[in-house]
Design a protein that fits this description.
By secondary structure, the protein is of the alpha/beta class. It contains eleven helices and 21 strands. It has a five-stranded parallel sheet with strand order 11-18-12-13-14. A four-stranded parallel sheet has the order 5-2-1-9. Strands 6-7-8 form a three-stranded antiparallel sheet, with no helix packed on it. β12, α7 and β13 form a beta-alpha-beta unit. The chain is elongated, with a radius of gyration of 22 Å. 33% of the residues are buried.
Amino acid sequence: MSMDRIVILGGGVGGTLTANLLARRLGARIAAGGVDVTLIDAQGAHVYQPGFMYIAMGGEREERLARPERSLLDAPVSLIVDRAVRVDVAARTVVLEGGAIIPYDYLVLATGSRITPDEIPFFAQEAHHFYSAKAALELRHALDAFSGGRVVVGIASMPYKCPPAPLEVAFLIEAELRERGLRDRSEVHFCSPIGRAFTIETVSDMATPILEEKGIELHTFFNVEAIDPERKVVTSLEGEELGYDDILIRNDALTMDVRNAMLEETNRLFSDVLEGGNDFAGVAGYEAGKGWDAATGLGSANAARLVRALLR
């Protein structure tokens, strides 16, 4: 009997859940030797990244956010701790940094995103983010030293990881300033790259009145492009300028530029990328330009179709 080999790259939330869900759905076939599910992770440790925001706000510690990846995986899932450096689509193999070559029949890319703040000049000396434990702790120190002025929470590019996070941080910073007695001598500004506070309209409709109630000024169509450290001004792609004393920006990009034959053949798995809408999530997606590869496009996978494709 031939064996179907499913390989998952990345041990974050997406990769771990995918591996466990497949192991549970395919348990009988795995036990019979008909399916193998293998997860490859560079570190072998799962870090709960949403917790970074709470490090920045003083309510969490880095060591509490990490778990051994093996402890989170169901027993039938094999774990390889190594870094994937290349996918050979023709041979259907993944090449690892240590030299091993892992064959697959189905490949799931769950490598997440990487932040690229260096794409904005002067970011390192002027700005903060909270998308790593180290950066979140540095932001915490900056907030501790803050004694009043203007705080700007901005978004540097679309799409970006964890869309609610910048808005959450704006609310949390405002609440902290109020608690510390600094609110009357501080301004909090939230810059959205689109025409409303949040991508999902119903969430935006809920959040906008709260922004107004809290005195957080909303700037729409403000895509952060540049920082002028001498003038203490952040400039948007649209040409608007906003002064700051402390500024928080985020900017994400995809980690891997590879092609996956199964995902290309089943391009409806990425309907939001190819067609501008994700039926499964019920939200609008991003239009794709010519030449976008379905395996590395900007949008989120359609979870229902992805599971069906892997289980067929």
